[in-house]
Amino acid sequence: MKLNELSPSTGAHRSPRRVGRGTGCGSGKTCGRGHKGQKSRSGGNIRPGYEGGQMPLQRRLPKRGFKNLFRKAYAVVNIRDLKVFEKDSVVDKKALVDVGLVSGRWDGVKLLGQGSIDYPLVVRVDKCSETAKKGIEGAGGQVELI
């Protein structure tokens, strides 16, 4: 199969409505736009949220809470996820990205303590919980905070 052989399944594609072809077709003269007004003009569209000069809903509603602009978002990795690494290997952000445990744009990596591991690893992360640290060091590994 080639790209030029592809076609939509039967009934999936409908041809667009032909407007402005006389009064007999049902969408002649004003072409379904009605009479006068901004929406009947060419190029006359209204931006989303505009209410004709009335105070828009998003400005009428009270604003609540606080959003910290300097908040740091951390990718979360549990001890049970580290079983994909071999014994005595170094686990850092690059290694986690290569394996697929961390993706996207994060400010750092935080290690949490769910699960267990039987062999030592050297883990270099930005943050680590106490249970995770005990779990890694209990298996003979070490946790380095960067």
Overview of the molecule:
The structure is a single chain. The protein is α/β, with parallel strands linked by helices. The chain folds into 2 domains: 19-63, no CATH class; 74-145, Ribosomal Protein L15, Chain: K, domain 2. Helices cover 14% and strands 15% of the residues. Strands 1-3-5 form a 3-stranded parallel β-sheet. The protein has a 3-stranded parallel β-sheet with strand order 2-4-6. The longest helix is centred in the last third of the chain and has 9 residues, at 130-138. The radius of gyration is 30 Å and the shape is elongated. It starts with 56 loop residues before the first helix and ends with a strand.
Please trace the helix and strand order, writing H or E for each element.
HEEHEEEHE
- The amount of helix comes to 10-25%
Major β-sheet annotation: 3 strands, parallel
Unreliable segments (pLDDT under 50, ≥5 consecutive)? none
- Mean of all residue-level pLDDT scores: 91
Strand order of the largest sheet: 1-3-5
**Helix count?**
3
For this structure, the quaternary state is single chain
Approximate shape:
elongated
Radius of gyration: 30 Å
Features:
3 helices, three-stranded parallel β-sheet, Ribosomal Protein L15, Chain: K, domain 2, alpha/beta, elongated, 14% helix, 146 residues
SSE blueprint:
Elements (H helix, E strand, L loop, with lengths): L56 H4 L13 E5 L11 E2 L1 H7 L8 E5 L9 E4 L1 E2 L1 H9 L3 E4 L1
Parallel strand pairs: 1-3, 2-4, 3-5, 4-6
Short characterization:
With 146 residues, the chain is α/β, with parallel strands linked by helices. It has helices spanning 57-60, 93-99, 130-138, and strands at 74-78, 90-91, 108-112, 122-125, 127-128, 142-145.
